[in-house]
Amino acid sequence: MSSTPLLEVRDITAGFGAVTVLHGVTFEVPRGTIAGVFGLNGAGKSVTMKTLAGIVPARSGQILLDGEDITRLSPEQRVARGMGHVPQGRQVFPDLTVEENLRLGAYTLRRRDRSRYGPALDSVYDRFPVLRDRRNQKAGTMSGGQQASLAVARALVNEPQLILVDEPSAGLSPVATLELDAVLQEVAGTGVTMVLVEQNIAFGLALVDTAHLLQTGTVVHSGPVAELDESTLATHLGIGKVLQAATGQALSGRQTKGAPGAGRRAS
Amino acid sequence: MTAVSVHRRLPARGLPVPGIVVALVLAALLPPLLGSTPLLSDPHALLLCRASGIAIAAISLNILMGYAGQISLGQFAFVGVGAFTTGIVTGTHDLRLPWLAGVVAAAAAGALLALLVGLPALRLRGLYLAVVTISVAYVGWQSLFRVERIGGGSAGKVIPRPYVGGWSFSDNATYLSLALIALVVVWQVDVNLVRSRFGRAFQAVKADEKVAASFGVDVARYKLLAFALSGAVAGVGGAVFGTAFGTVTGDDFQYSTSLLLVVIVVIGGLGSRAGVVAAAFFAVLLPDVLIGIFGSGIRGLDLVINAALLVFTIARHPDGMAGAVAEAREKRARRRGGEPPLPPTRPNLPSLGRPSGMPEPRRLRAGRPVLDVAGINVRFGGLQAVDNASLRVDRGTIVGLMGPNGAGKTTLFNAITGALRPDSGRVALLGQDVSDLPAHARAALGVGRTFQLIGLVKGQSVYENLLIAQHLAAPYGLGSGLTRVGASRWYEREIRERADKTLEGLGFQRFAQTPVGRLSHGQQRIVEIGCALVTSPELVLLDEPSAGMSPAAAEDLAATLRDIRDVLGRTVLLIEHNVPLVLDVTDELYVMDAGRVIANGEPVEVVQRPEVVTAYLGTAPVREGVSA
Amino acid sequence: MGQVLVLGLISGGIYAIFALGVVLVFRGTGVLSFAQGEIGTVALYFAYFLVTKQHLPWAVGAIGAIALATLIGAAFEYGVVRRMVQADPVSTAVATVGVTLFLLAGEFFVFGASPRDLPAPTRAGVELFGVRVTPAQIAALLLALALGLGLQSVLRRTDFGLGILAAAQDPTAVRLVGVPLSRLTLTIWSAGAALSGLAALLVEPTVGFITPGYASELFIVGLAAAVIGGLTSLPGAFVGGVVLGIAEAAANHWFGQYGLPGLRYVVVLVVMLVVLLGRSFAPDLRRRLEQPPRPAGVTA
């Protein structure tokens, strides 16, 4: 396993028009791990994702994917180099069927080597049998949880190195959130590297290995979740003492069940 | 409609009173004087007459597209109606009314037709409106203007030159005076329009209809007004233009000429009077210039140039010539002077009484809430955005509304202010049931609000925004507004005084003329709060005022909010994510999640309730036997 | 009655093809293109040039014309749309207005205003209800039908075509999936322009002569047809075209005797207003019917 981190984000500034939202974001994601980016509203989570994806141009700083500088590349070019996306709100193509969504997801794979598409599709259907059952159903008619599975499968089928997952639990019912948790654990099991941005902090903490805490446009803390304590979390998120007790609950709930991620993947 | 353009601003000045007199005198005397010299030949005078007519038509399109933001690809149909009406009124055998009557009739006919087009426009999206206006242009050209009675048959409609008390205008140079006088008058009327509440209301409607409604502008009515005014001016242009020709047929008012008008307005700069008039003269004189240079073998080269200019303009300088000029001026200014100092973030909001133009708010019986909301339900497609939400806000308090993203807070705000109609539920303001009132009517009763994405007219200056916000405080009529006589002088003075006081209180005097879009987010927020308060509303609704602010600025905001309650005696309902801010200023707190109100009461206590905490942090999923 | 139907279908086919071009571009890019009409006229002039001045066979002229139309569409996307500072749908629509004028001016510049005659490829035709129907007209109707109903399924078969359908629904997600959005938009604009060229070619043999702005007069009806059909529906565009064609023929049949000029445009305006306004009032009506009675009074 190579020692260079798969993703390096170095001092990125970005924003919209007159407003600068990110004031120098820096973090690394080692290969085969799951990194979480957490923060309250307005901290800059969504802009971070959009900048990583290439939809919002970085005004300064660098983004390196597997050692290659991708800062100036378009979103399509980044996907061709192994970046995959599960966008906020899933954004599946509603009028296309499940299989058509997947076929589009594998666009760059099919252009690289069409023969790999068949096996890739089968492997994805094996992981998500619910999608195989509905392969000819229009994506827009499926439930939120099923669409989430489809969005993840659509990213996976292209055999990416890195998957960016943007607030996957947003707008999902509690039941669907549980389904989603299972789905994301599946994905983690494939050994693919993930960056997860979440507003539902407890949900995110249960999944990731490393947490990067974002506050008003900078990363104020990076470290393994196992070493995170409630006061650090509370201070760095800026929520003050009042909600500390609650975060304490979230962390202890996790710690009693054993840290997920340990021993989950082969090195 | 169009994206924010931060370089464009409407000139707040027009010709000062002596200026217009000078212009009129020049317009009256110069052409006949020059006409007797070789400087102004007869065909050139005719060309300038045509150019004046087109310039007036361009101003009319500018009112509709540049000010009110309504698209019209058939404006020349209105011009044609004006021309033919003048012909009918002054030229038909049994009806030989004076020319001025013809012009008035032309204005009326143009206004009427434009109104007919504007009525369906109220219910149609912009692009549908564009197609309808193209269709109208074709109907005019191919159908209406070819009807014998109107168009005069194949020979065309004769429009005789005016004959006023011994003075004949059949000479082109003399008629040019009349054409130029008409142009100057229309120009001045347009200046007055822009400086009046009507021009400001158009600008607000164009920028953002929801924001306009929050300032009390009846959006539908103003859209229709824009059409009617635009049609009237187009009619006048038609009268001038048509009379210059002497005889007009349907083919003089082709669809492509409507397109050319669009080119002129876009190249000149949407919203810029001077740019548009300059572009009009340019477009009309260009063919002559080209023939002078290249000889008459060049057909259509002028159109090629104009079209190419349009494409270039829309692609690289969407604000047109005027915008490019303004941009260059600003670049020079920025290079010369440094950045002005930042204004204080702790404003001193002035305590203004109710404006004289607005009714006093209803007397509220003691103990009755300022705002009473019951059982609001809003459903978007499959999603229940607001689920049986109720809240009440007592006088002289600051009430907070919190909740995670997607909880339905802004949707509830929209239902309260009338920006959207809930599926069920009632809203009572100051004891009065307003559930059936549209947003602009509720604003009149005394509600001010701010928006998540800053509810200001971004292309306008801070000062103009403060004036737009007082739309309801200056209830004078159109006639008074266009002539600057009577009630408009009185009310304008009053709202400008209030705007000045607010500007002072905010500490923004140096930024008075700065387009709002160029201020920092925090500064825009302060201006927005100033605009929400300038009409002294009883209740102020603030949507995430601290978003994008640093912690220090948020503290200043907290102090400002407390001032609004304690010094000004108003009532505030605010949506906020900033927990320390909420705990600091609110007297009562409501929490929403997934459309429902899940908690309310004493802020410190509410924030610690388990259901609130869960709503914010989410729940860790319970897993079966995770292998360590 | 039969005559009205035949006449209506004949013109309806042409209107439908123009409408399809409009819908294709609108669906794929969100822009309403006003230039499609004049692109058709330019294509015709080019065919005229190839056939009459270069003495090439009609088929070559036709292919050349469509090729030129396609090129113009591509050039517009590559040279203008992509370079726009503010590429929002309204500004781009205004840019198409500029293109229309530019092409119109070019026609005047090169060919002048007097009509040019492009002779039809064949004199063949059938008699239906007293109306002479040429193969071009039949081809137009059949093609419109095929495209309206079948284009969508054809697109589904290829990755790129699928990308075009997806781009209409969610352009950002398309990029995130790795499909080159810029290539998609280029194809869409080119295809829309090609359809205009085709439509213009199919109509010309029956009318016989070309003047500047010729195809725009038909295009406007196609534009209205697209609008009536809902602007995003390909089958809707076909239906809209046929409806307007038949409405025009019917109006001519009943009202032609009164000598009102330009009946076609009056029909277009009326039908369009009726459909658009009807559609805009429909959700309100539905809401009013479904609304439960409001509870009286406000509970404290």
Task: State the gist of this model.
The complex is a heterotrimer of chains A (267), B (628) and C (300). Chain B has helices at 17-35, 42-67, 75-91, 99-121, 126-143, 148-151, 172-195, 197-207, 209-214, 219-245, 255-268, 273-294, 301-316, 320-336, 409-417, 439-446, 462-468, 478-483, 487-506, 521-533, 551-566, 579-585, 603-607, 610-617, and strands at residues 157-158, 163-164, 167-168, 247-248, 371-380, 383-393, 398-402, 424-429, 432-433, 447-449, 539-543, 571-575, 588-593, 596-601.
Structural commentary:
The complex is a heterotrimer of chains A (267), B (628) and C (300). Chain A has 267 residues and is α/β, with parallel strands linked by helices. Chain A has a domain of 132 residues: Rossmann fold (3-Layer(aba) Sandwich), CATH 3.40.50. In chain A, 37% of the residues lie in helices and 23% in strands. Chain A has 11 helices and 10 strands. In chain A, the strands form 2 sheets. Chain A has a 6-stranded mixed sheet, with helices on both faces. A 4-stranded antiparallel sheet of chain A has the order 2-1-4-5, covered by helices on one side. In chain B, helix 3 runs antiparallel to helix 4. Chain B has 24 helices and 14 strands. Chain B has 2 domains: 314 residues, ABC transporter involved in vitamin B12 uptake, BtuC (Orthogonal Bundle); 247 residues, P-loop containing nucleotide triphosphate hydrolases (Rossmann fold, 3-Layer(aba) Sandwich). The N terminus and C terminus of chain B are likely disordered. A 6-stranded mixed sheet of chain B has the order 10-11-12-7-13-14, with helices on both faces. Chain B is elongated and about 90 Å long. Chain B is of the alpha/beta class and 628 residues long. Chain C is mainly alpha-helical and 300 residues long. Chain C has one domain: ABC transporter involved in vitamin B12 uptake, BtuC (Orthogonal Bundle). Chain C has 11 helices and 4 strands. In chain C, helix 1 crosses helix 9. Chain C is globular. Chain C starts with a helix and ends in a 10-residue tail after the last helix. The C terminus of chain C is likely disordered. Chains in contact: A-B, A-C, B-C.
